[in-house]
Amino acid sequence: MPETTLAELAHEVRSKNAGPFWVTMELFMRDAEGYRIAADESFLNEGVIARLYRVEESTIQIFRIPSLNVVKISFPRPVSQGSLRDRDIHAGQHHVPLARLVVPPVS
User: Fold this and answer.
1) Could you tell me if residue 23 is inside a domain?
2) Of 35, 55, 90, 99, which shows the fewest CB atoms inside 10 Å?
3) Number of structural domains found in the chain
4) What is the pLDDT of residues 13-41, one digit of tens each?
5) Rg (CA), the chain
6) What are the CB-based long-range contacts (under 8 Å, 24+) for 36-42?
7) Is residue 105 part of a domain?
């Protein structure tokens, strides 16, 4: 059975700067069922994001917005926007590991 990713359940998965020192990623889920999966704290939580992005778990903020079927995740940028080591000045590619995250099988 093929694996399903968050991207397949979402209308859109995107990332962007939230100022020069933070990244925000947004999961716009297609429907309530997709949102239920993405918002499940046993599946998508600070520990998972910390491992995916190699950031401190305590710095991650997750906002679950059921009325919009949206999950929003913010954490400090690894380097400040526009600094010499910044490889993605708009943080437009940070969402890729999140989008590729495999969801647990539906039981």
Assistant:
1) yes
2) 90
3) 1
4) 999 988 888 999 999 999 999 999 999 99
5) 14
6) 37/9, 37/103, 37/104, 37/106, 38/6, 38/9, 38/10, 38/71, 38/103, 39/64, 39/66, 39/71
7) no
| Residue 89 and residue 80 in contact, taking contact as beta carbons nearer than 8 Å | no
Question: Does residue 1 belong to any structural domain of this protein?
Answer: no
**Amino acid, res. 6:** L
Low-confidence ranges of the chain (pLDDT < 50): none
**3-class SS shares of the chain: helix, strand, coil, % to 5:** 30, 30, 45
- Structural domain includes residue 73: yes
Q: Strands of 10-17's sheet, edge to edge?
A: 10-17, 22-29, 70-76, 61-65
